[in-house]
């Protein structure tokens, strides 16, 4: 069965049909400067992140290394050789019963929006997490006005799972946190295989 993300006009079958200049690959520590710049813009100019001060390259390196050491998928999208965005999965929560549930994070460079990059990255992340044996993916959206993020997740099959109202204070306003959810693989239809996904 084709995943909803595969219905995009730039997708064929179950794999992305990238534009001639878009390439998605595993992220490496060499991508940290670009990733740090993309995230810094999201922190200082948007509500996708509830951080108030952008972390430096050393902190972003620490965060990436922790995910890579944990064998979580982490990807970058390149357009014309430039990092246009990145995405990764992490545990939704750290207590053991949550071990089959991941949270996705997707960030796009400010000059690279509306090119299908976010959808391509999310599709790749869903495929990777499904292959690893995870059963649920949670999207924690930074504010209910993040229509692009909500739309990308909906297009990839996520459904609303609730809305935490007015829980963040940033840019002089209260912000919501919509939650969305996607079943991966067998979802909740069968018990998971024990062991780390």
Layout of helices and strands:
Blueprint: E1 11-12, E2 15-16, E3 22-26, H1 32-45, H2 57-69, E4 74-79, E5 82-91, E6 101-108, H3 117-131, E7 136-140, H4 147-155, E8 159-170, E9 173-183
Parallel strand pairs: 6-7
Antiparallel strand pairs: 1-2, 3-4, 4-5, 5-6, 7-9, 8-9
Helix pairs in contact: 1-2
Rg of Cα set: 16 Å
CATH homologous superfamily heading: Gcn5-related N-acetyltransferase (GNAT)
Largest sheet: 7 strands, mixed
Shape: globular
Would you give an account of this structure?
The structure is a single chain. By secondary structure, this protein is α+β, with helices and mostly antiparallel strands. The chain has one domain (4-183): Aminopeptidase (3-Layer(aba) Sandwich), CATH 3.40.630.30. Helices cover 26% and strands 31% of the residues. It is built from 4 helices and 9 strands, in the order E-E-E-H-H-E-E-E-H-E-H-E-E. The strands form 2 sheets. Strands 3-4-5-6-7-9-8 form a 7-stranded mixed sheet. Strands 1-2 form a two-stranded antiparallel ribbon. Strand 1 (11-12) and strand 2 form a beta hairpin. Helix 1 crosses helix 2 (57-69). 30% of the residues are buried.
């Amino acid at each position: 069965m084709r995943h909803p993300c595969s219905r995009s006009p730039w997708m064929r079958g179950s794999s992305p049909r990238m534009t001639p200049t878009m390439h998605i690959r595993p992220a490496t520590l060499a991508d940290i400067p670009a990733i740090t710049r993309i995230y810094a813009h999201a922190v200082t100019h948007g509500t996708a992140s509830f951080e108030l001060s952008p972390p430096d390259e050393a902190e972003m390196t620490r965060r990436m290394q922790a995910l890579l050491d944990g064998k979580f998928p982490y990807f970058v999208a390149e357009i014309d050789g430039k990092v246009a965005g990145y995405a990764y999965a992490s545990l939704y929560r750290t207590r053991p019963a949550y071990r089959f549930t991941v949270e996705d994070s997707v960030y796009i460079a400010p000059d690279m929006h509306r090119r299908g990059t976010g959808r391509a990255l999310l599709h790749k992340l869903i495929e990777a997490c499904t292959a690893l044996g995870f059963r649920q993916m949670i999207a924690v959206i930074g504010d209910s006005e993040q229509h692009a993020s909500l739309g990308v997740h909906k297009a990839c099959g996520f459904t609303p799972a609730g809305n935490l109202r007015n829980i963040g204070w940033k840019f002089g306003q209260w912000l919501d946190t919509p939650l969305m959810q996607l079943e991966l693989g067998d979802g909740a239809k069968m018990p998971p295989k024990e062991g780390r996904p």
